[in-house]
Amino acid sequence: MSDHLQNRRILLIVGGGIAAYKCLELIRRLRERGASVRVVLTAAGAEFVTKLSLGTLSGDKVYTDLFDLTDTAAIGHIELSRDADLLVVAPATADLMAKMAAGLAGDLVTTLLLATDKKVLIAPAMNVRMWTHRATQRNLEQLMADGIHIVGPNEGEMACNEFGYGRMAEPAEILAAIEAHFSELEFEGEQPLKGVHALITSGPTHEPIDPVRYLANRSSGKQGHAIATALARMGADVTLVSGPTNLPDPAGVTLKRVETAREMLVACEAALPADVAICAAAVADWRVDVDATQKIKKEPGASAPSLTLVENPDILATLSKLKTKRPTLVIGFAAETEKVIEHAVAKRLRKGCDWIVANDVSPETGVMGGELNTVHLITAEGQEDWPLLPKQAVAERLARRILAYFDSKKAKA
Ligand code: C5P
């Protein structure tokens, strides 16, 4: 199975910000995945990370200023960007973004960025007020209009003790954005899954207690949405049935928004026939057995109401056991904390699906709430162990595995 990062050449421009230390981890991860990394360090960046650390981890010379390159024996700045498959700026400071937006070229980094014909991905990092400043937002709009890819920034605690948007994306997120760029290239102009209808469930469900309260779970929907995006990019006709999430709508998919498990099942049934169904949603196993049309009141002196739960439909099992219109390939997810394989193998048989993607969510893996996932693909033929990957990369791999399945079916027909 191809890895989008294998043999890719990344030119990493490290700007001056406290987040620069995260680049060390990014370099390590990129190299683990078979990419080569060449680093260009701005003068401000050198205040935060050393040339020695960057050079040791990248295994290459670290470039620092324009005058390094005047020696005819040395690589010229044009070659530096020409030799790369992708330029990544991390951290992209407010100053660097402003220079890029204005097209300045007064030093090595800005010259490289102006002289390149390659895609550029930036990971902004700055104080929240600098990020929300009209000037930075104006520059951001300009950069997006110029075709620059952006990852982050995230919301959170900042080094300056303030809270808000401005934290640089985590290395795993930057890695996923780099990978997404290369996977887009792989299928550019090609639609290998054209004609395949994929039905995907994603996110949590909300089960009402009364008109204002509900039971829910912590699913973000990241994995399901990433699968929808990956399949759509390969040309599949995608119906995404999603519970409530904070995620942007994936491009090129038909999105059906639902709240409850019962609504999710109805939306899935309405979307049939489908060639492949992927149940990535964290469907609530139970709902509250109430039909409260008014908010339950807290009456003085009255005891707390008790809630009776009833079982929700199991969407994966229902789709897997359909007598007519059963999708050719039905895939479920299983989150396990122990005996991962054993439990997932049993779940595959119990639910009647074809494949199970088993996540190891034991606390030591850091998968829960994190960006990475360790999965095992369980099929009738056996098990495949996948490496620790960003959720987006898991989605890409699964999409390619689904493509291989339909290709081999076509070949046999
Ligand atoms: O039984 P468990 O919740 O561990 O199974 C997980 C798999 O079953 C996931 O694929 C999930 O989307 C699906 N599921 C479902 N409907 C339910 C419960 C789980 O589709 N009510």
Structure write-up:
The chain has 413 residues and is α/β, with parallel strands linked by helices. Helix content is 33%, strand content 23%. The strands form six sheets. The chain has an eight-stranded mixed beta sheet with strand order 13-12-9-14-17-18-20-21, with helices on both faces. Strand 17, helix 12 and strand 18 form a beta-alpha-beta unit. Helix 1 crosses helix 8. The protein is globular and about 70 Å long. It starts with 8 loop residues before the first strand and ends with a helix. The structure holds cytidine-5'-monophosphate.
Question: How many strand units?
Answer: 22
Named once each, the bound ligands are:
cytidine-5'-monophosphate
Unreliable runs: none
**What is the CA–CA distance across the termini?**
23 Å
Question: Any key phrases for this structure?
Answer:
single chain; 413 residues; eight-stranded mixed sheet; 13 helices; 22 strands; 23% strand; globular
Tell me the layout of helices and strands.
Layout: E1 9-14, H1 22-32, E2 36-41, H2 51-58, E3 62-63, H3 77-82, E4 86-92, H4 94-102, H5 108-115, E5 119-124, H6 128-132, H7 134-145, E6 149-150, E7 154-157, E8 163-167, H8 171-186, E9 197-202, E10 207-208, E11 214-215, H9 222-233, E12 237-242, E13 254-257, H10 261-271, E14 276-279, E15 286-288, E16 309-311, H11 315-320, E17 329-336, H12 340-351, E18 355-360, E19 372-373, E20 375-379, E21 382-385, E22 389-390, H13 391-412
Parallel strand pairs: 1-2, 1-4, 2-3, 4-5, 5-6, 9-12, 9-14, 12-13, 14-17, 17-18
Antiparallel strand pairs: 7-8, 10-11, 15-16, 18-20, 19-22, 20-21
Bound molecules: cytidine-5'-monophosphate.
Cytidine-5'-monophosphate binds at residues 201, 261, 279-281, 283, 285, 312, 314-316, 332-334.
